[in-house]
Amino acid sequence: MTLLEILEHIPPSDLSYDEWTQVGMALKHEGFTAQDWDDWSRSDSRYHAGECEKKWRTFKGSDAPVTAGTIVQMAKERGLTFFSSSDDDSLLDFEGVITYEGEAEPVIRQSPRDPVQEIITYLRARFEPDEYIGYVTSVYEDTETGKLSPTRGNYDRTAGQIIDLLEKCGGDIGSVLGDADPRAGAWIRVNPLDGKGIKDENVTDYRYVLVESDSLPIEQQNALIHDLELPVVTLTHTGGKSLHAVVHIGAQSREEYRQRVAYLFEVCEKNGLHIDKACKNPSRLTRLPGFRRGDSRQYLIETNTGKASFEEWRDYIEEITDDLPDAENAADFWDNIPPLRPALIEGVLRQGHKMLLAGPSKAGKSFALIALAIAIAEGKPWLGFPCAQGRVWYVNLELDDISCKHRIRDVYTALGIEPKHLDSIDIWNLRGRAVPMDKLAPSMIRRAKQRGYSAIIIDPIYKVITGDENSAEQMAHFCNQFDRVCAGAGCAVIYCHHHSKGSQGGKRSMDRASGSGVFARDPDALLDMIELPISEQLRKSEEDRAVCAVCMEWLRRFGFSGDVSQDDEFSRSRMMELCREHLKRNSIELMQKDIAAAVSRVQTRTAWRLDGTLREFPKFPTVNVWFDYPVHRSDRGGVLKDIDPDETWQKNFGKKKSNSERKDDRKASIETAFSAEANEGKASVKAIAEYLGVTERTVRNRLKEHGGFWIDESECGLKQ
């Protein structure tokens, strides 16, 4: 991808004036024109004709220039992914290498040929006649070490000029190129130059890179170069302990050259061909054949071997290292089909498969996933679904690490589960340290391989999404990372995602997750949560039920043995009457505190419906639950089954509330948020703001309006 192609992914309207100027400076530094900058800038409403040209003239360069890297970084920040050694999925897999087997292929020892013709063949294979080349035949000697090093050499003649002179020199190479010191040999620059210097900035075409490895025997170097099918233009014996392969890169810019060279070196390294990193410079010197070097000779072994171009070679490497399985014939497995993977969550998810939990903000998805982690670790049911006991890894991307630890203990306590298998839960706290999923997956696989996990839970995925979540192509690549983790770690992967904005009641469960439909189609199990509207009548009924339960508990505590009819047991007034008849006054006063707490829990309770789209199991009936902070509990009474979730949307278009009603709603929201976020009687203003989805300033205004809370600025929190 060229720098101008990368620039197409950066809308100029996204940039500040300083950033826009940096783009121009980078383009000029990389050899582009003011017109290139102008053409790109035209889509911005702030564009003024002639401004680019005027600004361009002020760019004089500096000791710390703005380079193509600035543009690349801008593009990365806007979701563009690049082909490179570190972030491209087309690299060799973690275990995939081309291993050399058998005896090393011997280097072909050619009989001595005419050195003049050897040099001419070499130059014609690599350069056009009108291209300037840099070559060195003179050296200087270090007086202390005696080491011979090349000088700057010559760089002001073209390949065509030198070939013409060599053809007429009568075998006297020195008359054309200069007499080389026989102790040192001669060199030539890897790429053509501009005739003005020998630095990287003098390179006119990023065409080749030098591949050299002196850590292996020459025979093995030769074998690996051929086995890898490197697109070698010239392969030269250096007269020393290595071969010099000039490899075709064919980059259109310095940045693309860097990326392609990094990819090439990565492949070579993974396959045992350890390359000198200094070879990456485009102005690097390589050995020129036709000259003696000590007791040996620098000679040309062959030209144009391996693949014809870098692109063809890259396709070849990706093809042979794609890790795709071979096709199977049905007759081969018909009588010996392996059993299905056992269920991890009965009726929902098999071991080694993927599950997505989707829902709106503040549905308690994290609490539900923590409860699932506990259910798997302890082998207990989750929302009514039996779970197989196993080891689980909870990857926390959102919560403060201390808050996460508290939540795990709080959920254990609320569920009433004895923590017998705490050693089966591992937590990886990555808040503030998360990286994109394609970078996280290898680290995750490496850490998980020896742990024997049944499941890895990733909460939430918006922290690690790479690319545009509305792009099917980019989200398919993103979701493929979960497959890599499943396969690499040998366990199920469970993750959560948020709903799109707007009413969800009229949508199918698989259409509610935000972004591309890939999110719904990719997992083996999609569980979707949607909130159910609670009428005042139902809320009052639940309060009465909670009060009756407290009354019955207190009556039994003090030995009440009388008969209570079913009607009485669910009558708030009758149960209170029984308590007044059989309990002492101080007991009734204590009971009233329990009643107030029970009513408060009912008032802050929300109702949810869980629906499933499954690949491996038949569809299960919808599950209705109460989110009774911090856990979801099944609606055993069945009071939620007939609620239409879209009533919430319809109510939004009904009669507008009065100022008094809106004020009461604001007060209730503060109380609800405080109940949900409070710890030891206090909660931070920030936590309340995040719970309500408003600013901290709005929270402070609502607290002042409520009057029942006060803010302790010394602790940056609020108390009731």
Secondary structure elements and their pairing?
Elements: H1 3-7, H2 17-29, H3 34-41, H4 51-56, H5 68-77, H6 115-126, E1 132-136, E2 139-141, E3 148-150, E4 154-158, H7 159-168, H8 174-177, E5 187-189, E6 208-212, H9 218-227, E7 232-237, E8 243-248, H10 254-270, E9 285-287, E10 291-293, E11 296-305, H11 310-320, H12 330-333, E12 343-345, E13 349-350, E14 354-359, H13 365-378, E15 391-396, H14 401-415, E16 425-429, H15 437-448, E17 453-459, H16 472-489, E18 492-498, H17 518-521, E19 525-532, H18 536-557, H19 566-569, H20 572-582, H21 585-604, E20 606-614, E21 623-628, E22 631-634, H22 647-651, H23 659-677, E23 682-684, H24 685-692, H25 696-706, E24 710-712, E25 717-719
Parallel strand pairs: 14-18, 14-19, 15-16, 15-17, 17-18
Antiparallel strand pairs: 1-4, 1-5, 2-3, 5-9, 6-8, 7-8, 7-11, 10-11, 12-13, 19-20, 20-21, 21-22, 23-25, 24-25
Helix pairs in contact: 2-5, 6-7, 13-14, 15-16, 18-20, 18-21, 23-24, 23-25, 24-25
Briefly, what is this?
With 720 residues, this protein is α+β, with helices and mostly antiparallel strands. Helices cover 38% and strands 17% of the residues. The longest helix has 22 residues, at 536-557.
Your description of this structure?
This protein is α+β, with helices and mostly antiparallel strands and 720 residues long. A nine-stranded mixed β-sheet has the order 16-15-17-18-14-19-20-21-22, with helices on both faces. Strand 10 (291-293) and strand 11 form a beta hairpin. 38% of the residues lie in helices and 17% in strands. The protein has four domains: 3-77; 115-320, 2-Layer Sandwich (Alpha-Beta Plaits), CATH 3.30.70; 343-532, 3-Layer(aba) Sandwich (Rossmann fold); 655-719, Arc Repressor Mutant, subunit A (Orthogonal Bundle), CATH 1.10.10.
